[in-house]
Specification:
230 residues; 74% helix; Arc Repressor Mutant, subunit A; three-stranded antiparallel beta sheet; 4% strand
Length: 230
Amino acid sequence: MASRRSPGKRAAQRRQDPDASLTDRAYAELEELIVTLELEPGEVVSESALGEQLGIGRTPIREALHRLARERLVNILPRRGIVVSEINVGAQLRLLEVRREIERLVARSAARRASDAERAQFAEIAKGFEAAARGNDETAFMRTDRALNELCLVAARNEYASGAMSLMHSLSRRFWFIHYRQAADMPLAAKLHAAVARAIAKGDAKAAAAASDALIDYIEAFTRSTADPA
């Protein structure tokens, strides 16, 4: 498991993105800590400790934690504290049932509605997946996956699909991070993610939907395999 990064390094990263609000910064950093297991499932955390670690005030931390609670990454327990949510294969498979249908819609809609600038970004994201796979860089892979998810939701221009998908992406990334060493084929996963990005970049809605289904097929097989690695 990766060691926790210093507040000084995080502060430097935040200065590079001055337009982000403190709450958005707190959310992004806490989400990454949870997804990459620096905050482990079942771990009890506090607003004050997290604020000190990240160098962010308690109000933005509190708002970020409430957002993470809506996404089921943490549980806020009155008088008991904040607990990082546990992980369950059965729940993950149920999530994928919903994710398959909505993600296909999002990919198809993004291919139809993306601007020229967004299509260029999708093409760069496809390259990013391949670079992460070549370097076996798990953190780069996760960040590129997040970038693809976020850009898809913007380009799809459907606030209802966006609201539904935003509740699932972080849970999916965390599940991947926990199990990918034992069960995943990163080059294949990168190829499947890149195919979605490239189809959207080309404006091919049919290919984007098919690529999305192929990706979810792989993710479902990967998820099932974690229950019985042998």
